Fold each of these.
Amino acid sequence: MTGMNIPELIFAFVLWLVGLFVLYAVVRFAVRHAIEDADRRRAAERRQRGA
């Protein structure tokens, strides 16, 4: 093998999965807030046009 024993490999894999999940959560949070912001802007534009 590469000199790593099984517990080290498992720890590295779990750490990698945690990092991947954190990245997924950050991207999901950013996209959700961007969509909400776009909806707010669209609603404000509709109100201005209607007035």
Amino acid sequence: MAHPDPKRRSQIASLAAHWSWADTKDRSARTLPARRASIARWQSVVDPAGAMPPDERARAAESARRAHFKTMAKKRWDAYRVEKSVKAR
């Protein structure tokens, strides 16, 4: 049964995750399905109809993925700058 306290549940889950990764012999094999799913998702974002040649679709998907993470980094940086200026007042 799950612990009723959310913080305690989080601690227990974190501990279990660390032990699970400590027992993992082949990390690459364990994360392979997630990596494949991520690649497939980005490819479907840039080419939903599947009309592009595979190599072009792969390059476009990688560019879209990078653009997404750079956009998130920029938003975080912008928020940090706003937060910093508010605290400076």
Amino acid sequence: MAAVDPIVYAQLCKYFPALTPKQATNVCFYSIGANNQDISSLLEIAPVTVKKSLESVQKHFNTDSLPELKTVFWAGFTFRQICAKYSINCDELFTSLRTEALISLKPFFPELNKNQMLGAILYSVGFPAAEIAVKGRFSVAQIEQLLAEAMTAMGVASEILLRVLITSRFILDLC
């Protein structure tokens, strides 16, 4: 079997700039259902190499499990599609954390205020609370409080379910 060239998947790096083409390829395949053995077969590399790559990405996105990494991948991917649809500059949003940029997304999350929405979206696409705090000039405790408030407002009991619900609303809008 011919190996899949990760460079073909390099365009995923524009959605996930912190990832290498190999990492982006691995997490893409994993997120659409391939296991380590499947991915290693497609890329003609050792399964342990795939496992280490996915664990590295998991650590980067601060997820508690590999299944949660799938949700972060899909949240990030669909959020970039939403940004394109609504002419939101994702890169600017990620660096400046300007809540005004998210005004067009308010109908997705009527139960959240702008800070809860910003925190919940950024957390869902893989930003750790500490990074959101630094960029937004909040304390980590304030970000954790915003996430807790968002979870309560959206009626979910865990951060993984918050990520799932946010991602599902993006997917529904893209349909």
